[in-house]
Amino acid sequence: MRYPKAHADSSGSVPFALRGPKTVRTALAAVTALGVGLVPALMFVSPASAATSDFTITPTAAAVTEGSPFSLSIAKDPNITTGTYTITIGADATLNARQANLTSDIGALSTTTIDASTAGPWTVTLPTTQDSVYEWDETFVVEVKDSTVVPAVASNTQVLTINNDDAAPSYSLSASPNPVTESAGAKTIVTASLSAISGRDTEITLNTANGTATSSNDYTALSASAVTILAGSPSITKEIPIANDGVKDQLDTENFVVNGSASANVANTGVNATSATVSIVDAQTTPKLTLSGGGAQAEGHSASFTVTASVGSELPMSVNWNSADVTPATGRAKATSGDDFTYPASRTVTIATGQTTAPISIPLTADGVNELDEDYAIELASPVNAALGTPSKATGTITDTSSAPTLTIAPSAVAEGDSGKKWATFTATLSSKSGKTVTAEWATAASGTGYGKAVAGKDYMANSGRLVFAPGATTQTFAVEIIGDNVDEGTGETFNITTASPISENPVTLSPSGPTTITITDDDSAPSVSFDDAVEKEGNGPKAWLLPVKLSNPSDHPLVVGIVDNGTGSASATYSAATPGSGDYSLLTSTVTIQPEMMSGQAVVLVNGDEIYEPDETVSLKSSVTDAPSLALISGAADDPITVTLTNDDKAPDLEINSAKGKEGETVNVTGTLTGTSQSPLSLSVSFGGGSIKGSKAADVGDFTNPGTQVIPIPAGTPSGATIPVASIPLLEDKLDEPDETIVGTGTGLGGVGTVTDGVIVITGSAGGGEEPGGEEPGEAPKPTITAPASVNGTGPVSITGTVAANATVELWGAPVAGGELKWIANSKAGTTGSYSFSRSISQGMRFVTQSQEVNSDEKTVWVNQWASLTASSPSRGRVTVLVKTNPNASGRKVVVQRWTGPNTWTNILVSRANVNGAYTATTWAPRGLVALRAWVEGDADMGINTGWTGIVRPVIR
């Protein structure tokens, strides 16, 4: 076996191809491994001096069949007598791949050396190997070389040939996978295989031929595609890509053929074509047909549906369609074939080869009838070359294009009435008949806010309903309750009636475009103003009194009524220092606004209560309407005066006879302390007489000189607490030792006005000797008496009075109730009767003592009553704002505002504390109308301040 010279020259070695069965190849490999080491000796010719003619190699036969030996006769030139020569085997470099394998094709020489000293000739035997590989006839070279020369030089060469005796193999074609399923990237691999290993290259040309599969759609064709099975190789492969055409094929399995034609070095050369059939499995299942389209389409047009195949097909697909039963949607009817749409006689749809859709068109009939939109449906049936998919049914809607009737409401005005409710009937009318049931919903609604706008629940009862007009009907009636009242509302009030088509039902075109306005005509006259006389206690301080102002009937507008003084009352509106108890009232509001639909309002009159005894007085007021809008809305501005009687609630003054003591021989100056003030002067009658007090001994006529009945005049306005001289009573001296004796001063008011409270004058006795009970030591100054009120209202002056020795100097000492030592405040001088007085302004509780001639009076404590005022107003509907002011400043102390919730019940509505200014203001909820409020302010016992209440106020809450 030989390889090309070029290969040997470039690689420096000669590769050996081992062919044949495995056992043969194993044996050849072993021999080859040994032979490789011999190659250098075989391949290099020694440049020895021996010529190529020194030895002659003569084979018995230049070519033998493999397995037969070669017999060689070697002769030498007679002139060669010495030396050792080597017989070698080498490759014939000129024969390329047809060289014999020196290790596997040839055995060992019978001899490998020649001794030139012998005569020769020499016979050498060389066996050849019998194999089963089809191969070329192979050649090799036998040489004789002089071994004494390095490298050895060949002296002669002989080319020998081993003839092949094995038959050529056959070949076959196969494909895998087979069958193959079409898909992206799918392929089949065609294999060309030899029946046996060949020592020669085998070239096979492949061509494909369409069967039921076609190369344009199903696979990639081969055209004269040559493949070579190399010597020693059993087979060769070739890929053929398989296409996924995305179309349902006519056959589930299609095929094509791979044909081969081989070169001459195979056994089946004479029949050198063989083939393999490849099957392709279709990836697409049977197409599914679905139906879509329909939807809403106006009558007189055509509805469109589409039949869609899931995949295309190599065969035309067809399917029938028919109308199907349908349940109309709410508010729609069922269409009828022949009446509402045209139902063709032929209802078969075909999808052409290679296509996936086909249309269905259904003409819709325009019938000119106003009717409900109508539903219909079609469905597919009896598919050919396909199957039914989902959905195979589709629904369409025929929308009506005929005009709907319009709707009107009558009448547009209804009467009101004076009270209660009454039904007003309205008629709804369609402009024309309809071919379907017409449904409309009606409802009352406000036409706006403000004057002239009716209010649901007050002027009419909100209502709604549904009107159903059967096909052909044009009228329906409904009713709304109208509420009567006696409110003057001018020309009347309006509300709306709206109409609308209910959702999901056929629409109705409404006329007019907006709601229908209904007027409730008013039948009430304009109101007039009136008052009611009243009686009110004056009280001891200022308080607000609410003067009701009434209307004969309400108005829907606010009415402003002026209030003025009529000038005929006995009470005075102006304070005069010259007239005690004057300034009885003040008109705090000159106008009263009576809110819409209210029948009364309230003016605020400040009644200036006092502690002055006076007769009942009257306040006379009247209305005076000057507000232009109110003049137009009130039936006359008639004067209807009101008389308010302010009843006196103060007692006539009382003169309390001040108790006194005196020794026999002295004159006692008797005084009285006045409680209460009178607006008018009055006179009191006072008399004295002996009387026993709590078991004391009554003085008799011999113990004192009775001054007789004294008429004591009390000038108008004499302040309460004033000390009034009454009489001087000389006490008669006797020589008897006797106990204290008492004289009682009594009296009454002349004319039935005023009172006198008894007083006791004690004549100190001398029984038992020593110091008289309650008396002073001989020569000691008398103990001052002291009188002061227990409390005063708010900050202000305190009147402190008493008696001491006549013309004596009196000191006033004081200290806060809160604590501290008494400190000097002021001096005064008693009169000739021994009476003295001080006036001291205080803002907290004080302790007072007077001192004269170093003798102290008893201590008097005067507390301050917390004074507070309350005002209230209504800033908005259902809200009241209050303001509480205090004197003295009640900063930080609790303030409670209460509302009368009756009976006999006051409820706290605000609880907080006064601010740094001693005031408190807040706004809170209150029921509408007249309410009564009062406030309580916490006192401070440590500071000598009592808690205080305000007067009751009566604001009107809007």
From TrEMBL:
Residues 498-520 have a biased composition (Polar residues). Gene3D superfamilies: 2.60.40.2030. Keywords: Calcium, Ion transport, Repeat, Signal, Transport. Residues 276-381, 394-500 form the Calx-beta domain. Pfam families: Calx-beta. It comes from the Bacteria. Residues 498-525, 766-786 are annotated as: Disordered. PANTHER family: NA_CA-EXCHANGE PROTEIN, ISOFORM G (PTHR11878:SF65), SODIUM/CALCIUM EXCHANGER (PTHR11878). This is Calx-beta domain-containing protein.
